[in-house]
Structure formats: C-alpha cells, structure tokens
Design a protein that fits this description.
Layout (H helix, E strand, L loop, with lengths): L7 E10 L3 E6 L2 E6 L6 E8 L4 E11 L25 H17 L6 E6 L10 E8 L6 E6 L7 E2 L9 H17 L13 E8 L5 E8 L8 H8 L6 E9 L11 E7 L3 E5 L2 E5 L9 H15 L6 E5 L5 H6 L5 E6 L2 H13 L5 E5 L2 H4 L9 E4 L8 H9 L4 E6 L2 H13 L2 E9 L9 E8 L3
C-alpha cells in the first residue's frame, strides 16, 4: 500500500520548482514539500498520499545541502517572509534563473534567454513593509511583524529583519512598545474584535523620506500624540515626512482605509527613479525595491527599443513609472490602472516630471481599452501576480501591434499568457529575469514578443 497520510518519511530533495515546491523521492513515489533546498535530506510528514505525487510538511533537515549557508537573519527559521536566506546570493540567483527557464521551456520552443540580473542590494533593499499585529502563540504576548512560516495566525516580531534597513526596525520596536503599554488587544481575524491591526512603513531609498501609518479598528480610543513624539525622537537615518492613523474596520485581512488622520506632516513622500521624481501615497503601487526597479525598467526600456513617433499603451500602469520612462522618447503614452489613487498619483508625477504626452485612465483594462480612441503601435504589460484576464488578453491581441513587452512578477502566470499570445501569432524573442526580491521565492521576468508575419 505504501505510505499513508499522517505517517513520516524521509528523502533527498531532487529539485525545487517555482515558487518553493521541493520534489522528494521517498517510498517509491514523489512528494512535494515546501521550504526546502535542492540536495537537503529531510524528514517530513505526509499530508496528502496520492498515487502519482503526494504532499508533505517539513519536520526537520537531516542533512544540509552542499551549498547551504547559515542565514544572516535570526528570524529565518520562523518567519514566512523569506525562503532562501540559507543560500548565498549567487546560488539564489542560479536557482531562480533555472526555475523560470524550466517553466518557459515548457511553453516556448525558441527564444533568447538572457539569464538573471541581480538586485544591486541583496539586503536592506525594501522600501515598503506591512507589519501585522498578533501573538507569537495562542494567548501569548503582543507581537508585531510577519506571519510565522506556514501559519495564518501566529506573528513573529521581526525586529532584526535583514531585508529592510535599521529605520524600519527602530520604528517597529517603538510602535510595538507603545501598543503594549496601551494594553489593548490585536484584531482577531475570526472574532472580528480587537484594536491593533497593521504598521505600514515606506521609506524612499534615494531621498530617505519616510511615511509611517498605524492601522487600527475603531473599537477603542487611543491618544496617538505620545507615539508621534516618541517616533520623532528616534535616531533615524531617514526623514519622517508623515505619520498617519488609519481606521480600518473591514473584515478582510488587508491594509485599507475607512478614514485616515494625519498625525504629523503629510500623507505622501517622494522617491527618485532613473532621474525622475515620484510622489508616493500610503496605498499607491510602487516597486518595493527602488534600486532593483531601475534595473528592471532599464531592461524593459531596452526591450521596447525604438519608440519614435509611436503611441504606447502601458497597461496595469500603477503610479506610471514605465509610462513616464518611455514618454520622453515616444509620441504618446497611455496608461491604464484600476487603482484610482495610483492614477491620481501618476497624473501628478507626470506633471512633476514635465511630461505632457502621458495620459492615464482609471479602470479595469478589460473595459477601459474599448474607450480609448487611439490605437497603440506598441504595448507594455505589467499585470498583477495572477496575470491578464483572458478576455482582456484577447482584446490586447486584437490591437495587432508589432511588438509587446510583458513584465511579470509570477512566471507561472506569464507562461499561461504566453501560450495564448503564441497561439495568436506572436513569438517570444527575448527573455531576461531581474531579481527584485533577494532572500524570497519571487522573481521578475521581462519578455519581448514580436508579431509573426506569414
């Protein structure tokens, strides 16, 4: 009969498929076990005992992989934020490069694969963190940080996190201390009771400007003035531009605002990218690795190529970074983005950078592209993680442009969309990965597609 659900087994990890699926051979079949490295010998508990390929949960690493190193972050084993801090940075890059190439080889026959470009910084690279309030174990003391690996509820206080700089860590400690002194509970996701929800910290890499937002429910009343004073007295390297109190009574576990109060300063800050200035508000999308974003966008720009006298559509345009990067060398750029706040910021940013040939539309790409009068000569796609809605993809294909550049943050979604694009007359010419998220499973991929002429 072989091994059953709930039983333990062991084996060597043969490979790790994107995002973090370890393939382990044991008891005459294969199992998928997450949070492992190629070459590790592991012990795991079977959670699904299918005949073809089962699933298991890691219990312990019996033998390390040959290239495994000691992680620099003390939270690594507990925190669910990072997956590969026990690999050197070059080994992380090689793993991600291989994962993307394997996924694309399954759906594309011929393309020029240009490998992976590293992030300029492999630690302290994030310009934004959303920390959650909770407890480290049931009914334990108040915690503020990241979700524990594999847990929906438990929170690890990541006050020594390596993917952010010291300012994030100082702010986290001070806010947690203040919250503990007030004595209120964190927001319980199942009971829908409690006060403390999230701490959002954004810091511009180039300008050093900081925006801090404390997110709570309206179930208690806490005077925030002492916290403002304490944060402003911290020995931060950056400059605090704004401290906000956001009320969020939504049942969903997301950071959103029912009401925002500015406790200090303003509700935005500025970042610089490729010589341009961008105004960023608490919820507007902006690449979380500023230095890595420059590498990503320069790669995308080189894939776009000649833009003279061309109308470019930038679909899923966020705060308009790509649109503004292409605008100086194009006839016109039209950005489409569903988040209205981001579109407002994109318009302001274009004005800030003296660009008058950018136009931004708020709405779902699927609906908005029917309303735009211009027809594009070229399309840049930078969709969310799940890729492009099939109906929207069909409309994009129907424009019949000669060239597209697709920027993807999830290679499996990219592969699905590339199948449709290739079936509709496009061929994949060039592919390059850019690592924007060192230590984690995530990777960006840039693809240039050319319309085939028969």
């Amino acid at each position: 009969m072989g091994i059953k659900k709930g039983e333990e087994s062991s084996g060597v990890v043969r490979e790790v498929k994107f995002p973090n699926k370890g393939i382990v051979a044991a008891e005459d079949r294969e199992f998928i076990v997450k949070n492992v490295l190629p070459g590790q010998k592991i012990r795991f508990r079977v959670t699904k005992a299918r005949a073809s390929r089962g699933e298991g949960r890691l219990l312990e690493v019996l033998e390390k992989a040959q290239n495994e190193i000691d992680p620099s972050c003390p939270h690594f084993a507990l925190c669910g934020g990072c997956a590969y801090q026990n690999l050197s940075y070059p080994d992380q890059l090689a793993l991600k490069e291989g994962q993307v190439k394997a996924i694309l080889d399954e759906v594309c026959s011929q393309f020029e694969f240009e490998g992976i470009k590293p992030s300029p910084a492999s630690e302290k690279y994030r310009n934004k963190m959303e920390f959650s309030f909770g407890d480290e174990y049931k009914d334990g003391p108040l915690a503020l940080g990241m979700h524990k690996r594999g847990s929906f509820y438990d929170i690890v206080t990541v006050d020594q996190c390596r993917i952010v700089d010291g300012d994030f860590r100082l702010i986290l400690k001070e806010v947690l201390q203040f919250a503990k002194e007030q004595g209120h509970s964190y927001y319980h996701k199942l009971r829908h009771t409690g006060y403390w929800r999230h701490l959002l910290v954004r810091k511009a890499t180039k300008t050093g400007e900081l925006l801090i937002a404390l997110v709570t429910t309206s179930q208690e009343q806490v005077g925030m003035e002492p916290l403002v004073e304490r944060v402003l007295e911290l020995p931060l390297k950056g400059t605090v531009k704004g401290i906000l109190h956001i009320l969020n009574d939504s049942l969903a576990d997301v950071v959103k605002s029912d009401k925002t109060t500015i406790l200090y300063g303003q509700d935005f800050f500025y970042e610089e990218l490729l010589g341009m200035k961008f105004k960023i508000s608490p919820f507007s999308f902006f690449q979380t690795n500023s230095l890595g974003a420059e590498v990503l966008y320069e790669t995308a720009r080189s894939y776009v190529g000649d833009t003279k006298d061309k109308v470019i559509f930038d679909l899923y345009s966020g705060t308009g970074t790509i649109a503004q990067m292409l605008a100086p060398v194009a006839k016109k750029v039209v950005g489409v983005e569903i988040v209205e706040e981001a579109v407002k910021a994109a318009k302001e940013n274009a004005k800030l950078n003296g660009l008058n040939n950018c136009e931004f539309w708020a709405g779902d790409v699927l609906k908005v592209i029917d309303e735009i009068e211009e027809k594009p000569d070229m399309i840049v796609l930078d969709p969310p993680r799940d890729g492009i809605h099939p109906k929207a993809l069909k409309k994009i294909i129907d424009f019949g442009v000669e060239k597209m550049v697709y920027i993807s943050c999830k290679p499996t979604s990219l592969a699905r969309d590339l199948v449709e694009l290739q079936n509709s007359g496009y061929e994949v010419e060039r592919v390059c990965c850019v690592d924007m998220f060192p230590g984690t499973v995530h990777v960006e991929t840039v693809v240039r597609l050319q319309r085939k002429h028969t």
